[in-house]
């Protein structure tokens, strides 16, 4: 079985699921087994808010626990056996691909030994046979080649939880020398919005409320706080466009593909006065995971054909 997983700072994404990259550990059974993984005598509730930012995702077992939870969800959704072998298709930013590839592969592989765990009370036994890593962002183009057709150069902006990864494609090929990773992701946007609301109104708003208002959806809230959040969404977009220009990308001449969890927020706040050449939105935050999976399936098919 091939399974694509996008290990984001803000959320874990598979082909069919997206849930917050938070883990809360318990030594005793929690009040509900919903989203709870049991392994090594401990209980881990997955998807509970967000964990502290880890520049190195391999320093603890949180992302491994989240990976097992993601596998269990996909096995259940695909109606596959709870005991199986899997090949993981995952990703890294191209700017850190060479440096992080080996340690992240070893972190997920765990020597290829079967692991037994319970998820929501159901027993699973999974052997991760191999891990294949691909560049984030570029993998999504495998699903949407029409976006780069007839364009000699395109800028891909992947707006994640902690980082915004920039990559220029020339004639559909990533230009590695142009890759940049900026610490301007949606977590920073959310934190700054919440701090501004507290400073100006004295109110404390939740991540979920901010996300809903940035998405243009209804939410019961003080109108001044709502207006502040909307204004901050625009300021974040201006800051991101400015950072991309400072990184050497002229957005007046380069078509832009926006993707990742924060792409819809930025696209909603882009205006004519920004002078962008053209902007396309890949609004599904699961597109990276699906792209990883699709590429590995194609590679496996070609190898089988030989």
Automatic annotation (TrEMBL):
Domain Actin-like protein N-terminal as annotated: residue spans: 4-138
Domain of life of the native organism: Bacteria
Classification via Gene3D superfamilies: 3.30.420.40
Domain called Actin homologue MreB-like C-terminal: residue spans: 156-270
Coiled-coil ranges (or none): none
Stretches that traverse the bilayer: none
InterPro entries in the cross-refs: ALP_N, ATPase_NBD, MreB-like_C
Listed name of the protein: ParM/StbA family protein
Organism field: Allofournierella massiliensis
Taxonomic lineage of the native organism: Bacteria, Bacillati, Bacillota, Clostridia, Eubacteriales
């Amino acid at each position: 079985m091939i399974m694509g997983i996008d290990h984001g700072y803000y959320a874990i994404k598979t082909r069919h699921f997206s849930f917050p990259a938070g883990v809360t550990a318990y030594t005793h059974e929690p009040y509900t087994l919903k989203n709870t993984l049991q392994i090594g005598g401990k209980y881990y509730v997955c998807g509970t808010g967000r964990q502290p930012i880890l520049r190195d995702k391999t320093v603890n077992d949180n992302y491994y626990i989240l990976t097992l939870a993601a596998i269990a969800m996909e096995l259940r959704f695909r109606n596959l056996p709870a005991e199986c072998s899997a090949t993981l298709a995952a990703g890294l930013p191209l700017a850190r691909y060479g440096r992080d590839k080996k340690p992240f592969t070893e972190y997920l592989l765990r020597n290829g030994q079967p692991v037994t765990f319970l998820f929501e009370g159901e027993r699973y036994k999974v052997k991760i046979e191999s891990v294949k890593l691909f560049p984030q962002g570029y993998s999504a183009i495998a699903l949407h080649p029409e976006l780069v057709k007839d364009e000699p150069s395109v800028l891909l902006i992947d707006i994640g939880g902690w980082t915004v990864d920039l990559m220029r494609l020339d004639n559909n090929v990533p230009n590695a020398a142009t890759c940049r990773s900026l610490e301007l992701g949606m977590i920073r946007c959310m934190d700054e919005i919440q701090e501004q609301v507290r400073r100006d109104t004295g109110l404390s708003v939740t991540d979920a409320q901010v996300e809903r208002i940035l998405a243009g959806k209804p939410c019961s809230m003080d109108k001044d706080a709502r207006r502040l959040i909307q204004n901050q969404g625009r300021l974040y977009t201006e800051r991101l466009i400015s950072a991309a220009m400072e990184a050497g990308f002229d957005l007046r001449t380069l078509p832009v593909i926006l993707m990742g969890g924060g792409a819809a927020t930025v696209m909603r706040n882009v205006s004519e006065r920004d002078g962008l050449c053209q902007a396309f939105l890949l609004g599904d935050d699961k597109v990276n995971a699906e792209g990883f999976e699709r590429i590995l399936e194609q590679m496996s098919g070609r190898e089988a054909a030989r």
